[in-house]
TrEMBL record:
InterPro entries: HTH_LacI (IPR000843), LacI/GalR-like_sensor (IPR046335), Lambda_DNA-bd_dom_sf (IPR010982), Peripla_BP_I (IPR028082)
Protein name per Swiss-Prot or TrEMBL: LacI family transcriptional regulator
Organism annotation: Nocardia pseudobrasiliensis
Keyword Transferase listed: no
Record bears the keyword DNA-binding: yes
Classification via SMART domains: HTH_LACI
Length: 336
């Protein structure tokens, strides 16, 4: 703060007021302070009071997820928290809402609190802020998604899991297998769509673009897309739903039209109470607990001084056949 004050030609008190957002500083002085802070790569340390007791560490890490309310994200969060608790470390968990601007805001808020490291479910394609922070010595682990960067990451084999789902449906005799997925810009969604295409090819089924519905980012959007598919001509006999919230929308539409016992369904990601549905939901199950624990282990290994090259850890998925994915084709539903 003294360096910022000297460069800006103001008092330390003025710098303090600006970085804290307090009133009483002219626009011209505030701009000088902001410019000086940017030149010096200064970020206000909200956790300074904890530094003296933790050897220059805050005993806190940041966890940036797409939505902490999502069942998958919340299970991952709990796993990270359990590992961190054993290390006497607090976890600050925040949601990015798949919004790059919001991700930058929450990352800046976490880094302003001098978190010791970050576990991030990355959004978008611009990760310059994270690369810069890593170059400053902050350990970072990407989780769930793997941008092409030299940063540690933990993911599942999304492509192979999706391929297995399609092959499973094809093995039941299905040839009209629809795909419903999240935003195509999300790495996991792109990988799962690639797996869908590969699964069709392995099964000798021709890809039909009319059965592909992408960019469904809510249960409501998925329900609308499913309704359009199942009420139109040549409806699918099976559906691969590539994300858990998308699966909720698919289930709602199938039940509304009383087709849940006639159109097969395999979802990617499990759902709470999935076994209690009728029929019970067949899924490609991830293990968010293992993913979260692995990501936390990698992060704390870095915090302990590991300087090995960045690693990519891949966690396997499992096919859980429960009933919905084993429904045979009802060819009376199609007109061609």
């Amino acid at each position: 703060m003294r360096e910022v004050a000297a460069l800006a030609g103001v008092s330390i008190k003025t710098v303090s007021r600006v970085v804290r957002g307090e009133a009483g500083v002219s626009a011209e002085l505030a701009a000088r302070v902001s410019d000086a802070a940017a030149m010096l790569d200064y970020r206000h340390n909200l956790a300074a009071s904890t530094l003296r007791g933790h050897g220059q560490k805050t005993a806190a890490i940041g966890l940036v997820l797409m939505d902490v309310a999502n069942p998958y994200a919340s299970a991952l969060h709990r796993a990270v928290e359990d590992i961190a608790h054993g290390r006497g470390t607090l976890v600050f968990a925040v949601s990015s809402d798949e919004d790059p601007d919001r991700q930058r805001e929450v990352l800046d808020a976490l880094l302003s609190r001098r978190v010791d490291g970050l576990i991030v479910m990355p959004v978008g394609t611009d990760h310059a802020m994270l690369l810069h922070e890593q170059s400053r010595g902050t350990p970072i682990v990407f989780v769930d998604r793997r941008p092409a960067l030299d940063i540690d990451s933990v993911t599942v084999d999304n492509r192979e899991g999706a391929c297995r789902a399609v092959e499973h449906l094809a093995a039941q005799g299905h040839r009209r297998i629809a795909y419903l997925g999240d935003l195509h810009t999300i790495w996991t969604a792109a990988e799962r769509y690639a797996g869908y295409v590969e699964g069709l090819a392995r099964a000798g089924v021709t890809l039909n673009p009319a059965l592909v519905c992408a960019d469904l980012h809510s249960p409501a959007a998925a329900a609308a897309a499913t309704t359009a598919l199942i009420t139109g001509p040549n409806r699918p006999t099976a559906i691969f739903s590539a994300q858990n919230l998308v699966t909720l929308g698919v289930l709602a539409a199938l039940q509304t039209h009383d087709l849940h016992n006639h159109i097969a369904l395999v979802g990617f990601d499990d759902l709470p109470l999935a076994e209690l549905l009728h029929p019970a939901l067949t899924v490609i199950a991830q293990d968010p607990t293992t993913i979260g624990r692995t990501a936390a282990d990698v992060l704390f290994t870095r915090l302990d001084g590991d300087v090995a090259p960045p690693r990519h850890v891949v966690i396997s998925t499992r096919l859980l056949p429960r009933g919905s994915g084993e429904i045979a084709p009802d060819n009376g539903l199609t007109s061609g």
